[in-house]
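Second attempt. The first submission of Queuine tRNA-ribosyltransferase had a stray character pasted in from the spreadsheet, which I only caught after the job came back as garbage. Lesson logged: always re-copy from the clean sequence file. Corrected sequence (187 aa) follows.
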Amino acid sequence: MHFMSFPLTKKGGLCGGEAKNDFWKTVYQCTQILPHSKPRYVMGVGFPLDLVVCVALGADMFDCVYPCRTARFGTALVRSGELHLKSSQFKFDFAPIDDTCTCSTCLHYTRAYLHTVATKESTAASLLTVHNIYYLLNLMKQMRTHIQNGSFHSFVKEFMHNMFPNGPKTYPTWCIAAFHTVGIDFS
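This time the job returned cleanly.
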């Protein structure tokens, strides 16, 4: 494959409904042949789990409408997955979306407020978009820091534990296979 002198390389056409097993294998194959001296950009990837898997496989950059689209449906991204703020369980929940998050939405609005506006106004979509993008930027920052510190494998294990608190037996098999390929095991 001949690489011209572009500032980065990209892989597109993923996340369009292909099986996750095919998804991670394609990302892995591409990152193995693309130059390591240039950023490797995977288009259309925005689910937090997919981002962590793709970074582990060697991808560097991503873009996706997911954080904004999911916000329009009243959903906030959090360490344990998603909060569906349209649910009535949040009607009297006066906590922020995430008590460790310092985005402007978490600093100024409660789950109860967002529940109320999420069911009636588009304001919630804007506030949740701010939070969701902040969450993903922070996730990427954490991964970069852990890669630089040589502790990325530990980060992945903690991320997976937060996302799937019932342990490795509940992890998606495609994730286990993808992580195993790059030497991250959960046994």
